[in-house]
Amino acid sequence: MSNEEYTPKVAMSIHAHPDDQEFSIGGTLAKWAKAGCEIISVTITSGDSGSNDVTKDGKYKPELAKLREVEQQAANDVLGIKHTVFMRYPDGELQPTLALRKELTKLIRQYKPDVVLIGNPEAWFYGNEYVNHPDHRAAAQAATEAVFPSAGTRLIFTDLLEAGYEPHNVKRLYIHGTDKPDTWIDITETIDIKVEALKKHASQVPVGEVEKWMKDWAKEDAKDKGFEYAESHRVMVLVKEEEEKK
Fold first, then answer.
1. For residue 3, pLDDT beyond 60
2. CA 73 remoteness from chain centre
3. Which of 2, 11, 66, 189 lies in disulfide reach of 115, CB 3.0 to 4.6 Å?
4. What is the pLDDT of residues 9-21, one digit of tens each?
């Protein structure tokens, strides 16, 4: 698929924590939003475990969750995302359960995205310095299974069917954080928007450093691709163009 430019009419981003989306695919989402794509941002947990402040205890978790939701909404506003969904699962305890898959299936059937964007459910290690958060893998696994087979199969979760949520076939699944990407999105025009969106997560990131991080990573992703900045994805084409026209 290489450098094919594809802009969906509707896209859904599904991630475990506030800021996951901005770190990984903020440039792609901003570019699509500018082109008129309707984007739904789904955050499964509200990041209520995202603090190691020794002055805080478990009573701080609800306050932190509210703060991080405010930050995520602000980031989505910067990216041009109009629909934000907080599922409020416990941070750090996420599992790819049938219940989670069902809730994601409902959202996919409700909003009917052409594209769903997720992390890599297979990724455990990045380089020799970062162990992938288990919530990231769990979110990606549950989302993948919601995309296929659950969202498009009529007799899976028949109570959703009875409630009026008709099956929907997602056309493409975009997976970031893979060592085998096949699609590179030129985000040169939206890299600054990505940086500004990530800065909204001030409780989590050193705001003064994120511009260098994002531009260094995006420049590396764009290497030999003819772009200044890029985001890379592996894309599963679940409905081919000729099938779309039928």
1. no
2. 14
3. 11
4. 999 999 999 999 9
Residues 6+ apart with CB under 8 A from 10: 37, 38, 39, 40, 111, 112, 113, 114, 115
- Give the integer Cα–Cα distance in Å for 54 and 31: 40
**Fold held by 10-244:** Rossmann fold (3.40.50)
Give the span between the Cα atoms of 126 and 42, in whole angstroms.
24
* Rounded Cα–Cα distance for residues 59 and 1 (Å): 49
Spatial CB neighbours of 132, under 8 Å, sequence gap ≥ 6: 120, 123, 124, 125, 126, 177
Please check whether residue 15 is in contact with residue 42, taking contact to mean a CB–CB distance below 8 angstroms. yes
Within its chain, how far is the Cα of 72 from the centroid?
12
pTM above 0.85, yes or no: yes
Half-sphere exposure of 157 (CA within 13 A, CB side): 28
How would you class 243 by CB atoms within 10 Å of its CB: exposed for 0-12, middle for 13-18, buried for 19 or more? Answer: exposed
CB neighbours (10 Å) of residue 135? 24
- Encode pLDDT of 156-185 as tens digits: 999 999 999 999 999 999 999 999 999 999
Q: 18-57 as b/e, with b when 16 or more CB fall inside 10 Å?
A: bbbbbbbbbbbbbbbbeeebbbbbbbbbbbbbbbeeeeee
| Cα–Cα distance measured from residue 33 to residue 11, given in angstroms and rounded to the nearest whole number | 9
Question: In this structure, what is the dihedral angle of CA atoms 4, 9, 13, 19, given to the nearest 10 degrees?
Answer: 90
Residue 22, amino acid: E
User: Is residue 150 within 8 Å of 99, Cβ to Cβ?
Assistant: no
